[in-house]
UniProtKB/TrEMBL annotation:
UniProt-recorded name of the protein: Rhinocladiella mackenziei CBS 650.93 unplaced genomic scaffold supercont1.1, whole genome shotgun sequence
Ranges of compositional bias, category Polar residues: 63-79
Stretches with biased composition (Basic residues): 1-15
Disordered: annotated segments: 1-79
InterPro entries: Kinase-like_dom_sf (IPR011009), Pkinase_fungal (IPR040976)
Record-linked Pfam families: Pkinase_fungal (PF17667)
Domain Fungal-type protein kinase: 192-600
Length: 752
């Protein structure tokens, strides 16, 4: 050790470290403090003296009260931003999003034999050369954790991996406690000495205090979220939590997040051997650490082996990316066929972890839905390529799936007593699919979904199995991008043609489908060179639809998913209310088409701030607005002509606000979808006491086909065309006899 006084010793150079709050994943370590090492022990008292002061010092005087400002001016969200409202809490920080994604699909204290059989089954026979058992036991001793861990996991022992220390950032919060660390304590990584999240293969968490395990697990999940965010093709991730005097092995994929029973590795030789076995297996088997073996990264290019060829994801190819720790994890990108097996020039690859539904589920998964639509010759969809290979399989021809759930194990992330964190979409999005609040906005930073759920629902265990799918299809332009240089007539033609495709998918198959998630993001615009199903081109269909993962059966009455699914900003108000509904109808999706028209007409492509200040965006993009807020505002805007003009059409951009015929068409659509309430006493009494008559009238058109047809006519009239009505008539004439709940009842009566 250097004999010079401490303040005269040369400072060590700052290293690059991982930071969850930084977009580039690497920042200076100015906010870090080194741990005690073998050469330089540091007492608790010395650490306490080095702690930073609270945000009230002059360096943070201009900071927002909901943030802490660190010495490097990096900002961390404080937990004070949560708003507790009885049994419901709203939160927008990362912890809330993680808790929302992992609700019900976490498990804790899994017996080791069960954990090994489910989550370590890929690892084969243990290599002859293993880590020293005594060295592992010493890691669990009271002092010098970092130094002993570094001795255990030396460069020679780690082969292609490296051990990196991220440090711990602590700041006093309102309760004089610790903020959640912004970086993992330790990681095993590949690549250079200064790793980014894209290099991480194993996450460690460590504490000497007797912390609640679930709290540390939540911190581990925060690091895991960042790893999955920066490694979009990762299939699963391992980790270890060292919590004095125990160790827990962690696992997360896109279907579950779990940790094992405690291993008392410092005192129990059997537990020590189990930990040694895991680390030895992990180090010796690079192919089973969780990275996708079909994906290779070379500089700015990503190469994916799929459907018998290699696809190159273009450097600026990603069109949509919604990272998700435990969820669907959608990535859509432009790809190029390196093997020239497919003739299409511009192809899109949509990679998702779709929920695996049972064979008898109704409706089936998106891949099966597309197969049914193609078999029925539904025209105008982006032409899929190699759909038979869309469900990814491993070398053994088995579907690539998330792991199963252990029996009789408790949920790991339970609802806290004071600050409940859960997601709003639980009641409104199919099963456990995670969708942003308003993805169609595509403006500014990605929105953290608002969260809302009852506390008693949080602890319910769920078992969600997912499988990896890669759907290839011909490229079409997103609606928002296509409308940058177009006007109202082009918009209505795109919507009209998308409605035709929608109606074909509803009518032509024997068991057709209702899309169920009409939004600005799921309507595309075919361009020259685009290949559509049925031999159509962009001249035949100006608009089309994608993303059928939330669709419903054509009769709308039976489904394996909740009726209240979709993108909340575009959903019909009736679907956002707590009142029961009997089925999904064409009318619900027609209301979504109507909202898409309004959204495009309101968008300001040159001034994001101006768009966000408009009433529509203010309500739909506010993280703390509830579904009932959306219902109340849509009712206020749409059901009254004056309010519709004052709060909606007056905020249209000039190409739309100046088109009288467009405004007239929009007002007529509004009157069809949201007819005005009458104040006539007889009507009131009839609606109150004449329920039987109303029921007969309502059942005459249970799917609201007449309403859909009437809206199509208004759009045709605006365009001075009859294409929409002509196409619907052709579709009706080619419709197969379909079995619906009503027809089955009639057949039963005839049999009797």
């Amino acid at each position: 050790m250097d004999d010079k006084p401490r303040h005269l010793r040369p400072r060590t150079a700052k290293r690059k470290v991982i930071d969850a709050t930084d977009n580039d994943s690497v920042v200076d370590s100015g906010t870090k403090r080194r741990r005690a090492s073998v050469r330089e022990p540091s007492s608790t008292a010395k650490k306490a003296r080095k702690r930073r002061t609270s945000p009230q010092d002059k360096g943070a005087k201009n900071a927002s009260p909901s943030f802490y400002r660190t010495p490097s001016t990096k900002r961390m969200t404080s937990h004070a931003s949560m708003i507790n409202q009885g049994t419901v809490v709203y939160a927008t920080d990362m912890e809330a999003q993680i808790a929302a994604e992992a609700r019900g699909v976490t498990r804790k204290n899994i017996p080791w034999d069960t954990f090994r059989s489910i989550y370590l089954s890929d690892f084969g026979a243990k290599p002859q050369q293993e880590l020293a058992v005594n060295s592992v036991r010493k890691v669990g001793e009271e002092q010098l954790f970092w130094g002993r861990l570094r001795q255990l996991l030396s460069d020679e022992a780690l082969c292609d991996l490296k051990l990196f220390y991220g440090g711990t950032k602590t700041l006093p919060d309102a309760n004089k406690g610790k903020e959640v660390p912004s970086k993992p304590d330790f990681v095993l990584h590949v690549g250079e000495d200064s790793p980014t999240w894209a290099d991480v293969d194993l996450l460690f968490e460590h504490t000497r205090s007797q912390e609640v395990v679930t709290k540390k697990f939540s911190q581990w999940l925060r690091g895991a979220w960042s790893v999955f965010h920066h490694q979009p093709f990762r299939r699963h991730l391992y980790g270890i939590m060292f919590i004095k005097p125990r160790a827990y092995v962690c696992y997360a994929d896109h279907g579950c997040a779990v940790y094992s029973e405690p291993l008392y590795f410092a005192t129990n030789i059997q537990h020590t051997q189990l930990l040694v076995d895991f680390l030895t297996w992990f180090i010796a088997n690079p192919g089973y650490r969780g990275r996708d073996p079909t994906v290779e990264k070379e500089e700015d290019w990503t190469y994916i082996r799929h459907a018998g060829t290699t696809w190159a994801e273009l450097p600026k190819g990603p069109l949509c990316y919604r990272p998700c720790l435990v969820g669907r994890n959608i990535r859509v990108a432009l790809v190029k066929d390196q093997g020239a097996k497919f003739p299409e020039k511009r192809v899109v690859m949509k990679s998702t972890w779709e929920e695996k539904l049972p064979p008898e589920s109704s409706p089936p998964s998106e891949v099966e839905v597309l197969e049914i639509l193609l078999k029925a010759n539904v025209r105008g969809l982006p032409q899929p390529c190699a759909l038979e290979s869309a469900i990814v399989r491993d070398d053994g021809n088995l579907e690539v799936e998330t792991r199963s759930f252990p029996e009789n194990c408790e949920v790991a992330l339970s609802a806290p007593n004071t600050n409940l964190m859960a997601k709003m979409q639980a009641s409104f999005v199919s099963s456990h699919t995670s969708k942003p609040l308003a993805p169609g906005a595509n403006v500014g930073e990605p929105l953290v979904p608002r969260v809302k759920i009852q506390r008693q629902q949080f602890n319910e265990p769920l078992e969600v199995r997912r499988r990896l799918t890669r759907v290839l299809m011909s490229y079409c332009v997103p609606l928002k991008e296509a409308m940058r240089s177009r006007g109202p007539e082009s918009l209505m033609r795109i919507i009209r043609d998308a409605m035709i495709t929608y109606y074909e998918a509803y009518k032509l198959p024997e068991f057709g489908f209702i899309h169920g998630d009409i939004s600005i993001e799921n309507i595309l615009v075919p361009v020259e060179g685009c290949v559509l199903t049925g031999g159509l081109t962009y001249k035949d269909r100006r608009g089309t639809l994608i993303d059928w993962n939330l669709c419903f059966n054509a009769h709308g009455a039976s489904s394996s998913r909740t009726f209240r699914s979709g993108t909340p900003a575009f959903m019909a108000p009736a679907l956002l209310q707590d009142e029961p509904i009997s089925r999904r109808t064409l009318g619900h999706d027609m209301e979504s088409f109507f909202t898409v028209i309004i959204w495009i007409a309101t968008l300001d492509f040159t001034d994001e701030a101006a768009f966000r200040a408009k009433p529509l965006a203010t309500v739909m993009l506010d993280n703390k607005k509830t579904p009932m807020d959306i219902v109340a505002n849509k009712g206020y805007w749409f059901e009254h002509r004056g309010h519709f003009m004052k709060s909606v059409t007056n905020f249209f951009e000039h190409p739309y606000r100046d088109d009288v015929r467009f405004l007239t068409c929009l007002f007529k659509l509004r009157e069809i979808l949201y007819p005005s309430e009458t104040s006539d006493l007889n009507t009131f009494l009839s609606s109150s006491f004449g329920k039987e008559d109303n029921k007969v009238t309502e059942d005459a058109d249970p799917m609201k086909e007449a309403l859909f047809r009437e809206c199509m006519k208004e759009i045709d009239d605006y365009l001075h065309e009859t294409k929409g009505r002509d196409e619907m008539q052709w579709i009706d004439s080619n419709t197969l006899a379909r079995r619906t709940p009503e027809s089955l009842v009639q057949e039963g009566k005839r049999v009797d």
